[in-house]
Amino acid sequence: MLAAVGYASVQAQVRARRSRLLSDDEWHRLFDARGLDRAREVLAGTRYPQVASDVGRAERTLKRRVHRETVSLAERVPTTAADTLRWYASRYDVQDIKLLVRALHYGRPLDQAREDMTVHGLDGPESAAWTRARSLRALLQELEGTPYGRALANAWERYQAENRPFYLEVALDLAFGRGLVKRIEALSGGDARDAEWLLGRWLARTNLLSAVRYRALAGIRPEEVVNFCLHRDFGDGLAMVQRVASGTSVRDEAAALGVELSAEGDERDAVLELERRTETLRRDAARRRFARMPFGLGLVLAYLILLEAEVRDLIRLLEAKAQDVSDDDLRSHIPREVT
Amino acid sequence: MWVPERLVELSLFVSERDLEPVTATIMRERVLHVGTQESERWSPAPKWAELAETYRELGARLEDVREALDVSEADLPTGDLQPRPEGDRPDVESDVLRLETRVGGWQDERDTALGELRELEAAERQLELLEALDAPVEKLRNLRHHHLTIGSLPAENVDRVAAALFQVAFVLIPLDRSGERALVAVATAREDGHVLDRALSSAFFEPVGLPHQVRGPPDEALETVRSELRDVRERIGELAATGRELATEVGPVLRETLARVRLDLELCEAMRHFPYRDEVYVIGGWMPARRVDELESRLRDVAENQLVVETLPPASGRPSVPSLVRNPRWLKPFEPLVSTFGVAGYDELNPTLVATVAFLFMYGMMFGDLGHGLLLALLGLALRRVTSFGTVVVAAGATSMVFGALYGVAFGAEAFHALWLQPLHDIFPLLIAAVVAGVVILNLGFVLNLVSAWRTRDAARFWLDKSGVLGVALYWALLGGGLAVFAGLVPTGAWLLAVALLAAAMWFREPLAERMKGAKPNVGAHAVTGFFELFEAVIAYLSNTLSFVRLGAFAVAHEGLSQMVLQYSGGQTGWLVFLLGTTLIVGFEGLIVGIQALRLSYYEFFGRFFQGRGIPFRPLSFAGGTDA
């Protein structure tokens, strides 16, 4: 009851925002657009005129929108749920820090890295703190005291010993995943069920993907695979990671998480299929959530997942249009049921 | 107030020598929303990006000094400073160097002492754990059959290491788990040592061997370490006192230099995007038309060379024109009613006033009660101390009181003769009144759409939109015509013919719109989608209108609920029931009514005329500045 009161005002906003996602008709016209210029014209008549006028920065603009909406919705939900949403939004911080880490490590122009950053670009007010870092050590100092700063500090010695930014990136991913698990576990009642359904299952599938990629694609040793993956993930967690590290089949593990993969192809094909199915299943779960109880964190998460899917598809579509990718190829990479 | 402020597209051609003062003036005036104006022949000069990098680095170095000395960064002296990034650079670099030199020796000494302290404290912790051991510590360094390692790792990784070693036999002894990092001793058979090392290093383990000079029995070594610790702590105390003296000495220069660096950096960040060619920069963007002359005069005051100012009215329908919406002060608290939905586009009407009136009307009608309205207004007055949203609550409370008077209801009781309708006695007339209110609000939406289309000279939208002339005609043919037939004023056949003609026009409105724009329509392609759109439009007219029934239904439910609370408020604990019930009604039901009013605004009303796809006007400015 009290939780419902807490979500009362946000649900009208979420429903209004959902009604402003691109319609099937708009998607239809975007798919049918011949070339990038025509796609831009179509886009100019939608809720994304800014993207149409500056396609070069489309990815950043779109991701910023997702981040901004996540944070603004977090301000309108009860405290524990808000904490979960803010942490979920911090995956963009992780992406930005990784960009900076790579630029600093490989000596790439920092200006370019900052231009590519989603949240903490130059014109973001909060950017000043850590975008001014001109060395990895300085970045560590700027982030000191933050969860991601701690993650980097933990991995610092290993990074220095082997001079590979991979360890810093793994530490950031793990910090995000573990933080999200902690926050989902702190929720209760319907919010906990919603978060486990919409975030927890996604986390379990991405954890499986990480374990398989480390073992099969990167050739990392079992004890390291276990350390580089989440041990709690709302699936089989540690047991799954240990099985994958020991060489079990990705298809069996995916089936245990409710994703039946085709038996054809090698492990690399299975990983690609699992990536695609993970996106589709998550979006379907979000759509279904709108048909249930109107109050609760689930409605907010469902909207954000749909928005995220829209943004991801739009970025792919613009890239594909810019490169004259064929219709069939485009549709195979954008899992939307638009005919 | 009714439309976003008229803007002009401004292009300033500025000599390279005047760029800094001109940009600084624009930033101080806060009137220009910068737009991208790059072309093949004009591109940003890289020197400002490089200078920004330099100032960012200088700022970071100053921050290091400021943090080391614990000097406050609040209220930096920015008032009289004129940013001149190119000219300031030599002075700023020399100031930073001087500050670093003055503070550097002290800082190095303090950092060394702190490093020693950390090392000795770690050694003390380890020796405390080994104190009971009756063997020299150097023997632990050379074991023959086992691979033993002692060190620290993130506390949360202790269990992860144990899980990662699932393929070998091992012993893991946590020695200290009190901090963020845990001290552990781990051992395995010598042949599995490489597995253990990999598992540990991937859990970000750092081996901490005892300093080599630590030898002999642990208790003796511990005494030596503790004596060294006392010396180091004393030295750190003396260094802290020196630091305070240094802060007093260099604080004013440090704060002024930091303020200058920040302003110069902000200016560089703005200038690095301006296109450049042959010693001329072009600053382009949008600004309020009424302030062009004033800005031009100020810029000419600071520019020493030729300055060319060009203004153009923004091309109609261009999506990238920002919109600067100015509402009167009293209306500002209500802006979120619209901004939550979207920002008015440059060519759109600003619906804040209409949305406010509609919202408050709907709220009052659903929550009509003199007593509850008064409580809501008082709650709003209290809220105004912390948030401007309180004003919305006060207004909602006031309209609830007005409707309470019309309903003759206070705290659920039929306290006096109703001036209009009494919800529980006049249920059917109230529901009819609610639908009539809905018809009025919907038609207001139609009118606003027509005005909006007229302003933007969008003929297709004006005539053929679902909320345009054709849509209004079909709506009234269905509603008004239906009522007229029901009343026997119009023959059924004539009504059906009129509806059929309008429906056919609606069916083919897309091809008609294309023809109106001069394009050749593909009628066949639109026939199927047009039919479904017609179907959807008719359903929407009906459902949108009926949706307003809730205005009356909530009024009835409100009074019913309130009377139930009154009924159970007798007896000794009656005041408690009344208090809790009233709190629930004002708090919970008040909130739900607000959501319903918002929902009706967003779905049934806004959708008729407002797209909310505008770009908010964000003037170029220094951080912390205020609107001129």
Looking at this protein, list some descriptive labels.
heterodimer; A: about 350 residues; mainly alpha; 19 helices; globular; B: about 625 residues; alpha+beta; six-stranded antiparallel β-sheet; four-stranded antiparallel β-sheet; 12 strands; about 60% helix
Describe the protein's architecture and organization:
The complex is a heterodimer of chains A (339) and B (628). Chain A is mainly α. In chain A, 73% of the residues lie in helices and 0% in strands. In chain A, helix 3 packs antiparallel against helix 18 (297-322) and helix 10 (136-142) runs antiparallel to helix 11. The radius of gyration of chain A is 20 Å and the shape is globular. Chain A starts with a helix and ends in a 6-residue tail after the last helix. Chain B starts with 6 loop residues before the first strand and ends in a 12-residue tail after the last strand. In chain B, helix 9 (352-366) crosses helix 18 (549-567). In chain B, strands 1, 2, 3, 8, 9 and 10 form a 6-stranded antiparallel beta sheet that branches. In chain B, strands 5-6-4-7 form a 4-stranded antiparallel beta sheet, with helices on one face. In chain B, strands 11-12 form a two-stranded parallel sheet. The model of chain B has no long low-confidence stretch (mean pLDDT 88). Classes of the chains: A mainly alpha (339), B alpha+beta (628). Chains A and B meet through helix 1, helix 4, helix 11, helix 12 and helix 14 of A and helix 2, helix 4, helix 5 and helix 19 of B.
